Amino acid sequence: MTVYEPRDPDWEARVRASFARQAFMTTLGVEIGDLAPGAVDLVLPYSSGLTQQHGFFHAGTTSTIADSAAGYAALSLYPKGTGVLTTEFKVNLLNPAKGERLVARGRVVKPGRTLTICKADVVGIDGTRETHVATGLFSMICLEGLED
C-alpha cells in the first residue's frame, strides 16, 4: 500500500468529526473500521431494513458506503479548511451483497490539489469468509471553505 503524508496534522480528528456529523451514515449504522492517511474502511452490519427484495444488501447501500469510504480516504489527505465532495463515480456490482456485514475499503489512487482519484472495494463478510461484492472508481474534489 502506498504511504501518503496528510496535509493537516489533525487529519484523523477531522475525519472522525466529519463522519460523526454525517446523519446518513448514522441512519444506516455505518462505523469507521480502520483509518490511515489515504485509506478508510467503513463497516456496515447487516440489517433487514437495508436489503432489497431477495434479502441482499441493496445496491444503493453498497454504493453509498463505497462512496463515503473513498471520500473520507481523500479527505484524510486534504489541508485544513477544506472539504470533500464527490464529482463522479462508477461502481461495478460483482456478487450479491450478503453477509453479517459489509466492509468498504476506500483508498486514494492519485492525490491531487483539486481532484483526488480514489477506489473502493466492498466485501461481504460471513464469519471468516470474504466475498468481493463491488468495486468502484471515484473522483473527489477538494473545496476551500467547505470545512468538513
Task: Walk me through this protein's architecture.
- The protein has 148 residues and is of the alpha+beta class.
- The protein has one domain (11-144): Hotdog Thioesterase (Thiol Ester Dehydrase, Chain A).
- The protein has helices at 11-20, 23-28, 59-75; strands at residues 31-36, 39-45, 82-93, 101-110, 115-126, 129-144.
- Strands 1-2-4-5-6-3 form a 6-stranded antiparallel β-sheet.
- Strand 5 and strand 6 form a beta hairpin.
- The longest helix is centred in the middle third of the chain and has 17 residues, at 59-75.
Brief description of this entry?
With 148 residues, the protein is an alpha+beta fold. Helices cover 22% and strands 43% of the residues. The longest helix is centred in the middle third of the chain and has 17 residues.
Distance between the termini: 26 Å
What is the count of distinct domains?
Answer: 1
- Approximately what portion of the residues adopt beta-strand conformation? 35-45%
Helix and strand run? HHEEHEEEE
Helix content: 10-25%
Q: Give the biggest beta sheet.
A: 6 strands, antiparallel
> Gyration radius, to the nearest Å?
15 Å
Indicate the CATH class: Alpha Beta
E-strand count: 6
Structure keywords:
single chain; 148 residues; alpha+beta; Thiol Ester Dehydrase, Chain A; 6-stranded antiparallel sheet; 3 helices
Secondary structure elements and their pairing?
Blueprint: H1 11-20, H2 23-28, E1 31-36, E2 39-45, H3 59-75, E3 82-93, E4 101-110, E5 115-126, E6 129-144
Antiparallel strand pairs: 1-2, 2-4, 3-6, 4-5, 5-6
